[in-house]
Structure formats: C-alpha cells, structure tokens
C-alpha cells in the first residue's frame, strides 16, 4: 500500500506517498507495514497488456531526501535528472534551501562544462535562464540558479552532500 509519510494514513490509488509492504504469508517473521522509504504510487487501472492486478509505478525518490518547497514536494533526484539533460551543465550541483519570511527559497548551484564556460555574460545569462526554465517545468516551483565554474563545488568522499538545508524549522 501507499501511505502518507507524515500521518501513516493510506492514500488513494494514483496519489504519491511512501511505499509500504505487508507480508502476512511468512510464518516465522510476519512484517506488518514495513515502510521502505521509497516514494511511489499504485495504479489499479487495467494494463494495456490485460493485467488487472494493482501495479507499483516507478519509484520517484526517497522520503528522507524529499524537500518541501512552497508546498511542493521536491526530490534531489528530479533536479539531477533535469540538469543531466542539459548539455552545458556538468555533473556536479548543489541545492541550497533557505527561508525568507514565511516562504522557502531554493537555489541550485550548477557547475558548467569546460566547453560551455565562457567570459561572455550574455551566453551565461542565456544558459542560466534555460536551466531555470527547465527546472521550473520539472519541479513546478520557481528555482534560482547560480552558475559556477567547473571544479568549484566541493567534492566529497563517499556520499556526496548535494542538499544544504539552512531553514530553521
């Protein structure tokens, strides 16, 4: 089943929430409502192949990675997927979330590729506008973008720290 990550209530088919598995057929160790932490939804419509059983849609992120920006759920994986589709953008990025007043602001620092890094301000402005536009369409929330030169974002051994949350909640 798919549940609301905060309340634990079951969601309707098609609504995004935390995937929860219940295994009642295991005799030695029944797992009741095992919350795996993945965000997905369940589809109950008949499949084009004829299958009528419920199906899990593609996993869209993790509960622990989810950011809520102005009431919209944003996953770093969505940001990464969008950025990797832009040829001028390098492999490294950083998300900074801050609160100004009652609203959350999201800044995405993006490293450019060596080939696209230029000293022409008009070229950089055009790339920045393109990245902001693509992220706004993918995330459904306005995002500020800061372009940085290749190699300037911090590198980490092991798990990278792509999200810096400066909000005081």
Describe this structure in words.
With 169 residues, the protein is α+β, with helices and mostly antiparallel strands. The chain has two domains: 2-63, no CATH class; 66-165, GMP Synthetase, Chain A, domain 3, CATH 3.30.300.30. It contains two helices and twelve strands, in the order ββββββββαββαββ. The strands form four sheets. Strands 1-2-3-6 form a four-stranded antiparallel beta sheet. Strand 7 and strand 8 (72-74) form a beta hairpin. Helix 1 packs across helix 2. The model has no long low-confidence stretch (mean pLDDT 85).
CATH architectural type of the largest domain: 2-Layer Sandwich
Beginning-to-end CA distance, first to last residue: 30 Å
CATH topology assignment of the largest domain: GMP Synthetase, Chain A, domain 3
CATH superfamily of the largest domain: ANL, C-terminal domain
**Helical coverage, percent range:** 10-25%
Q: Enumerate the strands of the largest sheet in spatial order, edge to edge or round the barrel.
A: 1-2-3-6
The SSE string, one letter per element, is: EEEEEEEEHEEHEE
How many β-strand stretches? 12
Unreliable residue stretches: none
Question: Could you tell me the radius of gyration in angstroms?
Answer: 20 Å
Q: How confident overall, as mean pLDDT? A: 85
The percent range for strand residues is 35-45%
- The number of helical elements comes to 2
Structural class: alpha+beta
Morphology call: elongated
Number of domains: 2
The CATH class designation of the largest domain is Alpha Beta
